[in-house]
Design brief:
The chain has 244 residues and is α/β, with parallel strands linked by helices. 54% of the residues lie in helices and 10% in strands. Strands 2-3-4-1-5 form a five-stranded parallel β-sheet.
Length: 244
């Protein structure tokens, strides 16, 4: 089989990473530096890297993050109250395998959303399915789903994600049907999936957000129990950037 036929076969079999490496070997003329076994191993590794990169790109796109963030960009200033050792332990994303919740609280601008997004980005790199939502928009989506009969289907889609990030928890009262929607979300994920909650309000004030106190007890028991907490402090990052 000649070279062009081999390349066509690779393309037909969707071995795009292998095809790209094979083509580049003619441009760089490095085939002679490999043994046959080494050349095959190099082609396979190129294909594996391509698939991993494509999967990561797809997971990042599907996560619907509002912006890019990475753990390498996290600032550990003395006034930030962010423990480096704790974040380092979480960076392997094993908290997702343990179905643990993370709670990130702090005043506006202290970096709650950035930290959650950075952890979500790291989770995508590790191959986990992540979904990011502002709680208000998530409520709107699921209320509309109830109206058109797709509620259970939408809940199932959310449940199928390894990590759900809920931002802006506590910006609005959780009453009427919203509290039952939140109960459904939390119950579906309880001890089965990991969730990150970001809130400007301290955890001690969350109980007052939920109208029906029996439901509040049930929801918060599932969210808070054994959750890992970050309580960010310090001056708003936006104000610091403006001063600079």
């Amino acid at each position: 089989m000649n070279t062009n036929a081999t390349i066509e076969k690779m393309q037909k079999m969707r071995l795009n990473g292998m095809k790209r490496a094979y083509e580049s070997s003619f441009e760089t003329r490095n085939q002679g530096t490999f043994t046959n076994d080494e050349f095959i191993a190099w082609l396979i590794e190129s294909e594996d890297n391509h698939r991993n990169n494509s999967r990561t790109e797809r997971l990042l796109k599907n996560a619907k993050f509002h912006y890019q963030a990475s753990l390498e960009e996290i600032s550990y200033t003395d006034d930030h109250n962010l423990e480096r050792n704790l974040l380092t332990r979480l960076s392997d994303c094993s908290f997702i395998d343990r179905n643990e919740n993370l709670i990130i609280t702090g005043c506006t601008g202290t970096g709650k959303s950035f930290l959650a997004t950075a952890l979500g980005h790291q989770s995508c790199i590790k191959g986990y399915k992540v979904l990011y939502y502002n709680l208000g928009k998530l409520f709107q989506k699921l209320i509309m789903a109830k109206a058109d009969g797709s509620y259970i289907r939408e809940l199932t889609k959310i449940e199928n994600h390894d990590l759900l990030i809920i931002d802006d928890f506590g910006l609005q009262a959780i009453n009427n049907e919203k509290q039952m929607i939140l109960m459904d979300l939390v119950e579906d994920r309880n001890q089965k999936r990991a969730t990150i909650f970001c809130s400007q309000l301290p955890v001690k004030n969350w109980y007052d957000l939920i109208e029906e106190k029996t439901i509040a007890d049930a929801i918060l028991d599932r969210i808070i129990h054994s959750a890992v907490r970050f309580e960010l402090k310090g001056e708003s990052m936006r104000k610091k950037m403006k001063k600079q």
